Amino acid sequence: MSIGALAWPVMIEMFLQFAIGRSDTLMVSRISDDAVAVVGFSNQFFNAVMVLFMLVSSGAGILIAQRLGAGMVRDARVLGTMAIVLTGGIGLAVSLTVLLGAGWFADILQVPREIQPMAAQYMSIVGGGMIFTALGTAFSTCIRNTGDTRSPMLIAFGMNIVHMILNGLFIFGALGFPKWGLFGVALSTLFVRLASAVLLLHLFRRAFGGKIAWREFPHFEPKLLKEIFRIGWPLSVNGASWTFSQLAIFSIIGLMGAQSLAARTYMNSMESFAFTIGWSIALAVQILVAYQFGSGKLKEAYFSCYRALWLGELLVLVNTGLILLFRRQVISFFTGDPWIVDMAISLLWLNLALQPGKMLNMAIGQSLNAIGDSRFMMSLSLPSQWIVSVGLSYTLGVRMGWGLYGVYAGMILDEWLRGVILLYRWRRHRRKGLFASVFGKKPPAPVSAPAAGAGLR
To answer: What is the pTM of this model?
Structure first.
């Protein structure tokens, strides 16, 4: 394993997954800016809901990499099947809830009144299929943590092409299909997620050597299940905090009007290219550090984090620079609204401060998760995201009238505050924590793979 070998397929897969959402935004922009606002707001809601799936799959993924690093293939296999069954159950419950309560969710999340009917229809269709998203997320996480990052990438590539074709058929009525507009986008998304889950299931059953039989899925081992939840629940809370804070920020922007909401949606589309690079490297280093930590290669695990950080910072800044270089052409490709174009161009410059902070957060944070230090992440994220990011977004953006500039100021301060504290935490593990023995800070002590995988308490 190496950061590069793990990262590039994850990077392409993430780009393609984001491309599905971005192609929706681009094609829906030909319908109206209101339709774009619906897709953007709904996707923020779905991202928040997807955090529930992390409760099991994220913890299981880290443990799978640790167990494989220690040569414990059988445990890794059981961890994978348990994660799929539990995540599928959570996904089914979420699907039924969103399907029956889409209009209510649109109302309480303060979607602007003029677009609430569109939002309710879109959310009910896409949200009703969240079980396929849940299963796909769990399959992909387990497969990637075995070291196979290429296969999920290939599936994402195929599904991206299918999605764009279906969008063309359902939105614009190509080849004689009816022009369904936003309803067609929802149907296309639902079909693609179903197909992706089926293909990933096929890969998952062969990811641990011999083919996994259907009878193995109901098999549960309490000891391994306890480990999953011990690592997974702080990760889930941390992820929930971030995604719900982003949803809260979208609600704050909703108070500024549909035009500001559409501008932020377009910004998400452009910023996702820089974010995707950073996130793919962070996921790759999490797999690598967990594998090295499980196999007892502590010094290699410690420095892998820094290699990923500097590589990520370089790539994120280069990507942000390219977007800035062609900023007017890029934003004008999405919309012709002069106010939105000018606002988005101004906000793009702030990404020179935002994206490096995000990269610092992601690289160090995922490395800490890989060694089991997920509770510290949670205890830091909750106050920072809600007091700094959401609190300042409302105070500066609404109360003081800074608008979207105030929202970005809050997000930038939050990312850098958490990033610096996480860096200190990682370095502390060298001086006094899990890596101290290999740097001569205290007498060496044998570290078994299961104990190392158990993480910090």
So the answer is: 0.76
